[in-house]
Amino acid sequence: MSSTLDIINPSNPVEPFLRTDRMPHIWCPGCGIGTSVNCFSRALIDSKVDLKNVSIVSGIGCTGRVAGYMKQDSFHTTHGRAIPFATGLKLANPKLNVVVYSGDGDLFAIGGNHLIHAARRNVDLKVICINNLIYAMTGGQTAPTTPNSVITSTNPYGTYDPSFNLPYLVEAAGAVYVARWTTFHVRQLAKSMQEIFSKKGFCFIEVLSPCPTLYQRRNKMGDGLDTMVYYKEFSKIKNGCPTNELGLGKAGEIIVGKFVDRERNDYRDLMHDKMIESLGDRYVEREACECEI
Amino acid sequence: MHADPAGVLTGSHFLDGDHACCEGCLAAGARFSSGYPITPSTEVVERFASRVPTVGGTFIQMEDELAASITLQGAVWGGAKAFTVTSGPGFSLMMEHIGYAAMTETPCVFVDVQRGGPSTGLPTLPAQADMMQVKWGSHGDYEIIALCPNSPQECFDLTITAFNYSEQYRCPVFVMMDEVVGHMTEKVIIPEADKIEVTPRRYTKLAPDEFLAFEPKQDLVPDMPRVGEGYNVHVTGLTHDERGYPNMTPTIQDRLVRRLQNKILKNIDKITLFEEEATDGAEVVVVSYGITSRVAQRAIEMARDKGIKVGKFRLITAWPFPEKQIAEIAAKTKAIVVPEINLGQMVREVQRAAEGKCVVRSVSHAGGSVHKPEDILNAILEVTR
């Protein structure tokens, strides 16, 4: 009977993952964040993960709103602090799959210190960074990811701050999985997002996404669709490419792919092994740091 | 419910306040702490890092105080009782997440072992100069609870109370120690686990489809969901409605912020702890808290030796401020003397509560040591002259 209903009233397969009572969302037409959420929902379906055990943690900014639209346990934290919040959530309740879903400014500027330390510790977190190359929610200011010679509201004569190469930084800090896609690469992105659900340790996916309102328009780069055409024509898939070759310019080639996929004991394994080595059977390991015992 | 015996070091001990505070955390059921080292508070988490692996829990040293103060909140939502410990400069960095804990009604405990400021100030020397910051330090309107131990024994006892209040009222609760209380060593009695009352988390008994995450109960405090059980809870620092969804209208803001305030203020009689002695018929009452109350005790005895009728009122709960009790004292005495190791912080609250009904005299001290009893005595003599 349900299959008949499905035919009569087909619904969007990602709908069960969204808080539809919060629609419409705040994202602009042409923005890529919604596309990434679509891919993420697809990854949740395909990974067959127990949805009850998925928690989404966001910081502040346009991407920070993802936590509020996903119909899982979700935490919209403070600016830059999604990763340390997620670290506490994961360590206290290890059965959770904790996903950090936030933007480039949030994760790499105000939250940059937390990001490199979580990668160093190899905390078992899945970090999805929507990189629109700018501070969008506050009106298009220069971010640590903004390429050279881009017009922003705080660099009206063009940017000159050198920008971060995110995969290079995250690999150096210790991440076990590093990939980059654009919102044009929806199938590859969904597959990467699915892959990190079966990967333990600090996983990082950079998702290049257009900000037509504040980046493309101010730089006369067209709208969201024009950016899709740019992503299509200038992206080159180079899996395993050395991350130091992944810097981004205002125009030109965008290297995408999976660059790092390695094994390293995660934080809990490291803690467990050291405690067993030092304390032996005096070490009391609990499944969770529950307060009702 | 009673304390989990695994965390209770029953017996008679010789401990400093920092270590006693750590034992209070463990007895209260704290099984998670995220810290960042800062003198003179670090001994609390050093002991926790040593003890908790044999009790069953986690200590993680974070990269800074911003991280420490939010990591513990992630752990709380993950199901743990959690705390962090700091001192002035670190406390300043934690302000953002005190606001987050207040707004998201995250039960958690912050221990501030106060030292002299401003800025780096006096790292190894005492002050009581964070008493206003603890109440007003984060932006916006909110209420918190702050307790002031004056001995290692109280560092143990009041830390348990702090955890219990945080679970009952779902707000950040502060243990406001100072360098002297933190580092002084005295006898500390830790009772048996079944003699220690701990407040369990207020988990909802409703099913996910019946439950609204921020719908207050009769005491204005909402019950909590368990994460990972299908409640699909949404927690945000944005102004939110009963579902937890962002809703930024003046009406919702008014309802939320007033409730966050009233859930504490309407329960003030249950939260207020104090010690009062000989205030009836007193010419002057000394109002003090923390380590200063012990110096004040000496000054009070010296004044009584001179035949002056001196009463004593010790704030154990500093916030919410016990204004009813202070107003009563102000109505029946000539003067109140307020010594504190700052240039006059809680004395402002005393003045506000006294409403001009008696003289209120501050005995300030910029920090670095405790008062001399004579300084407090002189103030008592002056106001009774």
Name the features.
heterodimer, A: alpha/beta, 8-stranded mixed sheet, 8 strands, about 15% strand, B: about 375 residues, alpha/beta, Rossmann fold, about 20% strand, globular
Description:
The complex is a heterodimer of chains A (293) and B (385). Chain A has 293 residues and is an alpha/beta fold. Chain A has one domain (27-280): Rossmann fold, CATH 3.40.50.970. Chain A contains eleven helices and eight strands. Chain A has an eight-stranded mixed β-sheet with strand order 2-1-3-4-6-5-8-7, sandwiched between helices. In chain A, helix 2 crosses helix 8 (186-195) and helix 5 packs across helix 6 (112-121). Chain A is globular. In chain A, 51% of the residues are buried. The mean pLDDT of chain A is 95. With 385 residues, chain B is an alpha/beta fold. Chain B has two domains: 5-195, Thiamin diphosphate (ThDP)-binding fold, Pyr/PP domains (Rossmann fold); 276-384, Rossmann fold, CATH 3.40.50.920. Chain B is built from 13 helices and 16 strands. Chain B has helices spanning 17-28, 42-51, 65-77, 88-104, 133-136, 152-169, 179-183, 250-265, 268-271, 292-305, 323-332, 346-354, 373-384; strands spanning 11-16, 30-35, 58-61, 81-86, 108-116, 122-126, 145-147, 172-178, 185-190, 234-236, 274-277, 284-289, 310-315, 317-319, 335-339, 359-363. In chain B, the strands form three sheets. In chain B, strands 2, 3, 4, 5, 6, 7, 8 and 14 form an eight-stranded mixed β-sheet that branches. In chain B, helix 11 crosses helix 12. Chain B is globular, with a radius of gyration of 21 Å. The interface between A and B is large, with 48 and 53 residues. Strand 2 of chain A pairs parallel with strand 10 of chain B.
